[in-house]
TrEMBL record:
Subunit relationships: Homotetramer.
NCBIfam families linked: adh_fam_1
Keywords: Cytoplasm, Metal-binding, NADP, Oxidoreductase, RNA-binding, Zinc
Keyword Oxidoreductase: yes
Any coiled-coil regions, as ranges: none
Gene Ontology cellular component terms for the protein in this record: cytoplasm
PANTHER family per UniProt: QUINONE OXIDOREDUCTASE
Protein localization: Cytoplasm
Keyword Metal-binding: yes
SMART domains recorded: PKS_ER (SM00829)
Identification of the protein by name: Zinc-type alcohol dehydrogenase-like protein
Domain called Enoyl reductase (ER): residue spans: 16-335
Length: 338
């Protein structure tokens, strides 16, 4: 089968950073779906692993943790899907990625693809939707419902992949006042289009930007990028007993003692945790994606596809990695077809 892989960690603009390769087709385990991949999208995790994780024993390492496709075969214990079903999913970080014609995924972390979306539009959603959903409803413990509880959410990096879906979920499914950050006119417009009540510029002091829109402090913060750079400002912006959730990898250690005076709580979100540890509630990601699929088909939320980079090959994936690393991507970068 065709796949895109790497053999050594190289800059995205290096011609061997990602390569077109031929690999043996995988066989499904008991809980696995064998999926014919039709479209993929690219996430920061792809670039981080490419740069920092060397393949073992010279073997080809395949990235890719967002896919939409068609089930070709199922394992002996599969009950949720059958061949011919269209699915979308993010997969597991400790297994081979989805940048290949055929891919294995545990049925408990896959969902039925929205019927109203193309494969490319659907591939933009799984990883970011799972991350945003778990962050909002499980880590920050926001209640669903439109009632105004006097709560507010500051989303730092609202124009990115996770921010684009988190903004929609927070605005459409909760009573939160949603404040997104973006630093360029086009990304600020994108965040407003996704439903944020207010948009502020994270290249300026956040407390000053909040004051500009008449907000003193917020009850919740979702820090999706550059947490170490904004950390002191985030603490200042949070109300006493507020909650701070983050998903990025700060380059500098965070001093948790700074949270004590306000009794602030800190929450990490990693959507791969359930699959990494085979948790008892692993099937919640299937249910979550099923819910997201229904919300898309009913018009409550929409795909966050930002740019379509053409077919799935090494050259296009290198371009996608380079754009992600530049920090200038809007929404999700998607590739489609082999």
């Amino acid at each position: 089968m065709k796949a895109i892989a790497y053999y050594q960690s190289l800059p995205a603009d290096h011609p061997e950073a990602l390569l077109d390769v031929q690999l043996d087709a995988p066989s499904p385990g008991p809980h696995d779906l064998l999926v014919e991949v039709r479209a993929i999208s690219v996430n920061p995790v792809d670039t981080k692993i490419r740069l920092n994780v060397a393949p073992e024993h010279g073997a080809a390492k395949v990235l890719g943790w967002d896919a939409a496709g068609v089930v070709k075969a199922v394992g002996s214990e599969v009950t949720l899907f059958q061949p011919g079903d269209q699915v979308f999913y993010a997969g597991a970080i400790d297994r081979a990625g989805a940048n290949s014609e055929l891919h294995l995924v545990d049925e408990r972390i896959a969902g039925p693809m929205p019927t109203s979306l193309s494969f490319a539009e659907a591939a933009a959603l799984p990883l970011t939707a799972i991350t945003a959903w778990e962050l909002l409803f499980e880590r920050l413990q926001i209640a669903e419902g439109s009632a105004d509880q006097g709560q507010s959410l500051l989303i730092v990096g609202a124009a990115g992949g996770v921010g684009s879906i988190l903004t929609q979920l927070a605005r459409r499914l909760t009573g939160l006042t949603v404040i997104g950050t973006a630093s360029r006119p086009q990304t600020q417009a994108w965040v407003r289009e996704l439903g944020a009540h207010h948009v502020i510029d994270h290249s300026k002091p956040l407390s000053q930007e909040l004051a500009r829109i008449g907000v003193g402090q917020v009850t919740h913060v979702a820090s999706l990028t550059q947490t170490d750079q904004h950390y002191a400002q985030l603490i200042e912006c949070l109300q006493p007993q507020g909650r701070l959730a983050l998903i990025d990898d700060p380059l500098q250690p965070l001093d948790v003692m700074q949270l004590k005076r306000k009794s602030l709580s800190l929450h990490w979100e990693l959507m791969f945790t359930r699959s990494l540890y085979q948790t008892n509630d692993m099937i919640e990601q299937h249910r979550l994606l099923q819910r997201v699929s229904g919300l898309v088909d009913s018009g409550v939320i929409r795909t966050t596809l930002g740019e379509h980079f053409g077919r799935i090959d090494a050259a296009n994936l290198r371009r996608a990695h380079a754009l992600l690393e530049s920090g200038k991507a809007k929404g999700k970068i998607v590739l489609e077809g082999f």
